[in-house]
């Protein structure tokens, strides 16, 4: 079954009100991840990768920040707890744990004990296997700019925070799907994770091409004044809603500029900091956004105007009554980076072989 997600039309046509912003339009692809059972042949978030059986799995050997919580928590246990919470959310009168769930929990504990006994190593003491974050096929996301001959992008990260920005370190791999014969069946996993939010829930994707405009922080001073000028809105027959009567710029940023959620391309979602251009360490070219790893697909308040038509009812209900048991419809991947922010991956526009960089926003 083909899953479709459709972004509602924006409440105002940006170029009708501000034709000066037309040259700033950028293409983007909202990925719309939703929980599922993707295979290695699919584009996905947190799903299995098309990884050659004869290619070593990547590990992180850098120093890791580690907050000692007093217990070890493997990815399998994180996934199990999510499964339990989802079941209990759907069935409030159900048992705290089913026999199958109890068996799985005991299996997690046994696995940890067999591997490490009572003395688990600190994360800095051993290389840490990376976790799959996303796999994107060019056929699903034509906006990708792969090296010659490549048609699959694979993104992984280390599930620990790293200096100096307290974020997971990322790794990118491009490959040709046709060249992968035997797939690695059981990739290694880290024995624990620094944060539950660093374990993406397996999700299928419903890519959707959209057009974005820059956040007001990316506008020139003249353009920013233009967006703040209420008379410009009225002259075009548009008017921000009453909640933004004194701040049309806020209306522009929330409803008209860059889309929230997981996406390829587009404009950066500034706000945590002022715009911070990234430059290639090899050629000094200004880098461009490749992938946004988002904590939320849309904002729980006014920003739920970005919720797809197909999720509208759930988004409105969640905005009205909240959520429980971690079952936010706007957080299908269960990923949380920073203070529920976004991790943006940037690449060099002149060569895909140049190293990427990333930034929390």
From TrEMBL:
InterPro entries hit by this protein: YwqG-like_sf
Region Disordered, residue ranges: 220-248
Domain of life of the native organism: Bacteria
Composition bias type Basic and acidic residues, residue spans: 220-232
Name of protein: DUF1963 domain-containing protein
Species: Streptomyces genisteinicus
Lineage of producing organism: Bacteria, Bacillati, Actinomycetota, Actinomycetes, Kitasatosporales
């Amino acid at each position: 079954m083909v899953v479709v997600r459709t972004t509602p039309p924006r409440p105002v046509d940006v170029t009708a009100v501000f034709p000066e912003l037309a040259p700033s339009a950028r293409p983007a692809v909202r990925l719309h991840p939703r929980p599922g059972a993707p295979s290695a042949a699919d584009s996905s978030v947190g799903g299995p990768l098309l990884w050659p059986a004869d290619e070593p799995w990547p590990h992180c050997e850098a120093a890791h920040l580690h907050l000692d919580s007093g217990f070890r928590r493997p990815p399998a246990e994180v996934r199990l707890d999510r499964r339990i919470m989802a079941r209990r959310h759907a069935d409030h009168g159900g048992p705290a744990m089913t026999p199958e769930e109890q068996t799985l929990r005991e299996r997690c504990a046994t696995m940890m004990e067999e591997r490490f006994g009572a003395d688990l190593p600190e994360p800095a003491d051993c290389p840490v296997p990376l976790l799959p974050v996303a796999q994107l096929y060019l056929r699903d996301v034509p906006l990708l700019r792969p090296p010659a001959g490549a048609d699959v992008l694979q993104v992984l990260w280390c599930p620990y925070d790293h200096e100096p920005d307290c974020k997971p370190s990322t790794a990118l791999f491009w490959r040709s799907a046709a060249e992968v014969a035997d797939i690695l069946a059981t990739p290694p996993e880290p024995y624990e994770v620094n944060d539950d939010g660093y374990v993406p829930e397996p999700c299928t994707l419903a890519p959707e091409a959209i057009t974005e405009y820059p956040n007001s922080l990316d506008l020139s001073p003249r353009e920013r004044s233009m967006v703040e000028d209420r008379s410009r809105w009225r002259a075009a027959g548009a008017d921000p809603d009453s909640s933004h009567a004194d701040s049309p710029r806020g209306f522009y940023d929330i409803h008209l500029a860059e889309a929230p959620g997981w996406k390829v391309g587009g404009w950066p979602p500034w706000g945590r900091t002022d715009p911070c251009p990234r430059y290639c360490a090899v050629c000094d070219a200004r880098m461009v956004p490749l992938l946004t790893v988002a904590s939320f697909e849309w904002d729980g308040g006014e920003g739920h105007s970005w919720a797809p038509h197909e999720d509208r009812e759930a988004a409105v209900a969640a905005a009205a009554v909240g959520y429980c048991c971690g079952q936010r419809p706007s957080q299908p991947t269960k990923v949380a980076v920073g203070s529920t922010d976004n991790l943006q991956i940037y690449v060099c526009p002149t060569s895909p072989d140049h190293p990427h960089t990333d930034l929390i926003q």
